Amino acid sequence: MGFFVSREEFNAFHSIDRELYAILVLNLWRDPIESIQVMALWLWLERLGFKNAVKKMLSLPYVLINELADEAIICLNCIHSNLISSPSENYDIPLLQGFMEKEISLQFFQENRLNGVVAVARTVNDVCIKALMDIMQRAVERNAAQSLAESQMVMSPFIHQPLVPPVIRPVGPRGDDLVQHRTSATSPDVQADSRTMFFTFSKGYPVQEWEVRDFLTRSYGNCIESLHMQEANPHEQALFARVIFHKASTMDMILCGKGKVKFTINGKHVWARKFVPKRSKSSLLPPLPPSPLPGTSYGP
Question: Where do the record's region annotations for Disordered lie (predicted)?
Answer without folding.
Answer: 281-300
